[in-house]
Amino acid sequence: MQTEMQSGNPRDNVPLDVTRLEHLKTFILEPAAGSTPEQLDDIRNFLKAKGARVENDDIATLSFIDEATRTVVTAGSHKADRSTSDDSTSKSKDATGGASGGEESTDAVDAVPTAAPEQWYMDALRIPETWDRLRSLKNRPVKVCVVDTGIDYRNEALKDAFDDLPAANGGSTVHGGNAWRERKYGHNFVDDNTNPLDLHGHGTAVANIIAGKPTRAGGMPGINPHARLIACKAFDNNLKARLSNILSCIDYCIERGAHIQNHGWNISSNSDALVNAFRVADEKGVLMVVSTGIVTPEGRPQALLRPMDTVPASFISLYRNLLTVAGMQLVPREKMQRRVSRCERTRGGQKACLPKLLGLYEIYDKTRYGVNCSHLVAPAKNIFSTGLNNATVSMEGVSLAVGIMSGVSSLLLSAVVNGRYLRPKFIPMLLEVNNKFMVSAKGKVQWEGYTDCYKALKTVLDCKGEWAKISNVIKVRNHAIWERMRQDTPHKRPTAAQ
């Protein structure tokens, strides 16, 4: 390509670094430093004349409030006397509900993790109940590719959570380099090497939310102890990433066979290359969990009235493999006290004014939202996890809500029922009908609430893992939901603008 371009270019000898993304069928062209605007225009015009669609690189930002991060306690704050082991495996049957044939599933686990008291989001989504129910089932490992600042693979709670490439690959991938390290951990597209070590801490905290396995040395449990992590470093320590590096990560995650890709970032302009990347992921049945974004630290929750306001969450109407996530939080103590007092004055009794009856949760005060870009809400504030140096940290941002939903999705995908398991692309439909209504989410996100993980698992179990039966349950529940909405709002459904 480079030779052809130079031979057809009036301004010859423009050095180009050309990278081909195999699965996305996309080329990334990087001219040498010092190239003139005229030379870049010549390259662009040449490619357009050949019928190619050409766009400039863009910058993405993680949906995270970096200033709110604080180290709470050092390593060992939450010591686990019970941990999960997935060393013993047995073959799972190839089933119509599976992602692919011949995958291994782990035997039923004798012990379950123990959530730390600070992990309020575990109880909110009924994760401990789901763990207890999964004890009696076989579980398969689910691959989650985290596109972020990398992952600290030296972290005590994560060192055994990484995916390995099959031995048949001989430790080599299309990216070459240090084969063992890449096979074990992932890839670094920021520095273009095979060491995805996290130097910021965000990616490590997200990875721990998804798949942390606390040891006696400390750490907090992740949502899915059966998840197998793949690290793809696209973001630098300033939480910024070139879109070209994100595209490289999407291609790499597909190459590694990830069932789920975790994307807790946004860009503010559309991209044909990114639309194509999500289309390819959809065709390959990969679940893409994405963020609606955040407002500035000084801002307030913001409705996104135009689909192009946040990408890739705006792809919500294009692909069924997309799960778009806005943020929620615990109602602040002072605000809850005012609610209870007002309730007691108007209703004249304490039983009807318990906090759990008034609603413990509300829209996160820094989230962006809109029925045209978000399916549901998930916990995003005062999220405790394990960060760098095995320290416990408290963080906030919609990117953490994305990590939580990647963990929930992988937990549901891990269940093997009668030799069957769900395909990743069916997760959004399953979650839609197993959602808890939240008053402040009404008219702001499509499903008007947050996930009930245990209820979603129960739906799978009640149908014995057969997707045809699950699909029928979903249709029946959807009809009931829409009928109830029609009665509540006879003219039209509320929108974010309202």
TrEMBL record:
Transmembrane segments: none annotated. Its EC number is 3.4.21.62. GO terms for molecular function: serine-type endopeptidase activity. Pfam families: Peptidase_S8. Residues 142-417 form the Peptidase S8/S53 domain. The active site is at residues 148, 202, 399. One of its GO terms (biological process) is proteolysis. It is an enzyme of class 3 (hydrolase). Keywords: Hydrolase, Protease, Serine protease, Zymogen. It catalyses: Hydrolysis of proteins with broad specificity for peptide bonds, and a preference for a large uncharged residue in P1. Hydrolyzes peptide amides. Residues 78-94 have a biased composition (Basic and acidic residues). It comes from the Eukaryota. PROSITE patterns: SUBTILASE, SUBTILASE_ASP. PANTHER family: CELL WALL-ASSOCIATED PROTEASE (PTHR43399:SF4), SUBTILISIN-RELATED (PTHR43399). This is subtilisin. It comes from Babesia caballi.
